[in-house]
Amino acid sequence: MSASNKAYVSTLLMLVVCLLLFSFSPQRKALEDKKKNLQDELKSIEQLQKETKEDQEKSVNELGLLKVKITKQQDAIDQYHLQIQQLKENILQAEQEIQTISNRVGNLQNDYANTIRNTYMSQNSYSKLAFLFSSEDFNDAYRRYKYVKSYSDHRRKQFDELLTIQDTLYQNIQRLEHNKEEKITLLTQQEQIKQQLVADKKNKEQLIIALGKQSKELKQNWEITKEAETNLQNQIAMHIEQEIAAKKAEQERLAKKAAQERRDRLAAQEKQNRLAQLEQAKKERTRIASQKTASNAAKKQAIAGAKIGKAKAVIATTQKKATQTVAARPLQGQENVVADKSPNKEKNNTLKTLAAPRDLAPSGKSFKAKKGSLPWPVRSGQITGKFGTHPHPVLKNITITNNGIDINTNKGATVYTVFEGVVTKKIYTPTFQWAVIVKHGNHFTVYTNLKTTKVNEGDRVSSQQAIGTAYTNTNKGGTVVHLEVWEGKKKVNPIKWLRKSV
Predict the structure, then answer these.
(1) What pLDDT score was predicted for residue 355?
(2) CA nearest 233: which of 432, 24, 451, 456?
(3) pTM score
(4) Which of left, alpha, beta for 477 (phi over 0: left; psi -120 to 50: alpha)?
(5) 377 contacts 404 by C-beta, under 8 angstroms
């Protein structure tokens, strides 16, 4: 096989491998995973819709769920379209390559047929046997035999390899066609659901109209709810301010205490140094007095020796010198006694800095590091109320300010903490039932609409610890958990802190 043919066949084999691996590509897997997540969310929404309708046929909460469902369903349909489009592009590419290979195979078939025909026609004049016997020697004949055999094997092998590639590509195209048909079927199902959603949109409009007829009652309920919410928010804000102020005061108290302790240590050290200096001065005075006394005694002894020397003047000159030498030696010994002593050096004591006391709540930096990856406060649910200011879904010229997010969940759902911390406050109101505030260093999380609670003020809680159960409002319809995140005194969007899905 020539180098060009080998390169051609290698290219075709690589194409086959790429097409076969397409079914396992990361991009396709990502699309499949996203589609599955959307399907799970749609099932969750349908379950929540059933529970909401059991409470009240027409409610604002049902309207919110319907809006979320329509958005999620459209996202799912878009994912199917993307997958179908990818399959179409790959199928078109495969068909083009198959056509190229088919043309190549056709040419090889013609070449192979011509080779056989020419060989047959030339058998009388130039047969294989004649070709071999026309060799100059045995080695030449053997080479001609190998040439004839390799030529025939080469053509057959090339033809068989291309047929194999063509067969593999046909199998792959059939697989892709099968996937295409499967996706088209799924897309058809999604289109049917989309038609159902069109009907749901009409139902939504009818629901808005029906709720609009109750606008007076809705407005009264909204005003009552707003007043209760304002009262609750004031309590939450006041408590958080108190916690921040208490923490600041505690930090200042500890700083003052540390400063006072440092001053006390410095004063004690200074006093100790003064006492050491006084003790050293006392020792120095005692040393000087002792030295002076020894010097006076030496002088008196010298004078006495001189008098004795004069009295013994009659003694021979050699004895007199000896007596004088003996009298002088004590003076030299006393000089050694009164040698100066070096004063003791002062020792410097190193001051130790007191370690700052640990906060009762975990470090705020740890909570901040979890931004975008915190777990949800419920195991299943959909966000029906977003953070910020939004127009009322029914009432005109009225806006709603949401300090957190509203998560619609199942009846009796357990509510969990999103991060470890300390429960600093529990607040009860008839409208929103229990609210639990958890401190995480410089951050706070607030969980509202709890029917029951499982924690008390001062309790230390771990991440994803159960703190209560969700409250179901039969008048408004639905089970909604309200979550807030505070960064100091500032309310922030909880969606940016939670992970993307439950």
Answers:
(1) 35
(2) 432
(3) 0.58
(4) left
(5) no
CA distance 334 to 181: 122
CA distance 269 to 128: 117
Contacts of 81 (CB under 8 A, 6+ apart): 187
Structure tokens at 298: 């030496």
- 122, 224, 357, 445 from 241: Cα distances, Å: 107, 26, 21, 14
Distance CA 107, CA 152 (A): 16
How far apart CA 407 and CA 384 sit, in angstroms, is: 6
- Give all strands (DSSP E) within 295-420, no chain letters: 382-385, 388-391, 399-402, 405-409, 414-416
- Return the closest-CA partner of residue 40 out of 304, 382, 367: 382
What pLDDT is stored for residue 228 in this prediction? 85
Backbone angle region of 37, left / alpha / beta, with phi > 0 → left and psi within -120 to 50 → alpha: alpha
> CA–CA separation, 428 vs 75, rounded Å?
39
Residue spans of the chain under pLDDT 50: 1-4, 19-22, 24, 54-58, 124-125, 326-327, 329-360
Report the 10 Å Cβ neighbour count for 44: 20
Following DSSP, what letter does each residue of 169-189 receive, concatenated?
HHHHHHHHHHHHHHHHHHHHH
Calpha distance 238→427 (Å, rounded)? 12
Q: Which two tokens stand for residue 209?
A: 């109209």
Token pair in block for residue 331: 């003076």
User: If you compute the radius of gyration of the chain from its CA atoms, what whole number of angstroms results?
Assistant: 50
Domain 361-496 has CATH 2.70.70.10: yes
pLDDT at 339: 39
